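Human: Here is a favour to ask of a fellow structure person. Comparing notes only helps if you start from a blank page. I am asking you to supply a protein in sequence and C-alpha cell form. Write it directly below this note and I will take it from there.

Assistant:
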Amino acid sequence: MTVNRTNRILEKLRLKAALCRRIWSSFDEDHRRRGIEVSFSQSGEDILSLYALRRLGITVPSYIDIGANHPTKFSNTYLFYLLGGRGLNIEPDPEMASLIRKERPRDETLNVGAGREAGELEFFIMAQSAFNTFSRAEAEQVQRTSGIALSETMKIGVVNIGALLRERDFVPDFMNVDVEGMDMDILASVDWERTRPGVVCVETVDYTTQEKRPEVTEFMRSKDYAPYADTFLNTIYIDGRKWGARREVLG
C-alpha cells in the first residue's frame, strides 16, 4: 500500500513537472516570437542600445562599463553578458568590484576609477552606492538635496580611459559611462578617432536638480555621434559614421 501510494505521488509529480515544462516552453516560444527582451537597466537602456547595435550588425556586443556599480541591478551591460558578450568593467568601489568579479567571471573588472588623468583620487562612498563619486561637490550636493549620507572616503587609483583602451588595443562595440559628476572628463579622455564604439550610453541628467546636461550631447555631436534614444536619465548615442545614410533620420 505504501509503495503504491508513493508511486502515485511520484507519477503526479512527474505529470505536474511535464505540464510546467510545456507551459514554460510555450511561454518561451511566445516570448521569442514577440521579440520581447528582458531588461536589467533602470529605464530599458540595454534594450534600446541592443536594438541600435543590431541595426549596425552587432548581435553579441563587447563593452566597457565605466562606473559599473552592481553586476546585474540597473546594469546597462548585463544583458550583453547573458547574450555571450565579454567586456571590461571599471568600478572603484572595492565591494562592488568584488561582487562583479564573482557574478560575471567572463568579464574583466578593474577596481579603479576613471578620469582625465591617471593617478589617485579621494573616493566618496555614499550610503546608496549608485551615488558614489570622486567629486566632493557632487557628494555634498547629494547629501544636501537627497539626504543620502556619506559612509566613508578612501583613496582609489584612477586610470585614463583613452590610454587604457589604447594600451589594450580594445575598441568596444558599446560604451557605458555613469560616473556621477565626471562624465565629461572621461569622454574628453577618449581618442574618438581611434576608439569608436558603435553605441555610447551616458547619464545626461543631474540627479539632484533633475535637469538635462546639454553639454554632453554637444560634445558627442562634435565627435560625430548622434542621439539615438533618450530615457531622460540617460542618452544613447550612435556612431554617425557607422550609421551612414540613416544619420539624417536621427536629426
Q: What stands out?
A: Residues 2-33 form the longest helix (32 residues).
